[in-house]
Specification:
Helices cover 27% and strands 25% of the residues. The protein is an alpha/beta fold. The strands form 2 sheets. The protein has a 5-stranded parallel sheet with strand order 3-2-1-4-5, with helices on both faces. It has a two-stranded parallel ribbon with strand order 6-7. The N and C termini lie far apart (43 Å).
Length: 148
């Protein structure tokens, strides 16, 4: 299961490496990204399912051998809740993997007060997400002002 799967990019890389009979379930709150993923991973070779829902409130009786997220934790206000949710979907002996990048290395990690960052991201779903995070979480990573 891929938590915060977006359009399933991670699934496109992982599924060819998985044993025959493996399945992929991606969950994300963005309907646009989920629909894009359904088009990309539309194959008869693998059992693929996309769920459009909030990963923090989604419930299912299904447990997975492998639950992963990629660059999602930094967008979550309550990372402990997110990790516990991932664990709740994992079979005993299964793996929970979170792949995070150092945001300091990314252009979008630099915040200069008063600068409009919309031009850095052309994908509407991500643009909305970054703007929401900035409003909700503030300038918490690299914060610079005109006086710095």
């Amino acid at each position: 299961m891929d938590f915060g799967c977006g359009y399933g990019h991670l699934g496109t890389m992982l599924m060819p490496l998985m044993p025959k009979g493996s399945s992929y379930t991606g969950i994300d709150y963005s309907e646009n990204l989920i629909n894009e993923g359904r088009g990309i991973l539309n194959t008869n070779e693998f059992d693929v399912k996309f769920v459009c829902d909030d990963v923090l409130t989604y419930e299912s009786g299904i447990k997975y051998d492998f639950v992963i997220s990629q660059t999602v934790l930094r967008h979550i206000d309550d990372s402990h809740l997110f990790l516990n949710k991932m664990i709740s979907f994992t079979k005993d002996g299964g793996l929970v993997v979170c792949a995070e990048v150092n945001r300091e290395l990314e252009n979008v990690g630099l915040h200069i007060h008063g600068m409009d960052y919309d031009f850095l991201c052309q994908h509407p779903g991500f643009r909305e997400m970054w703007n929401t995070e900035l409003k909700r979480q503030g300038e918490r990573l690299f914060c610079c002002s005109e006086n710095s």
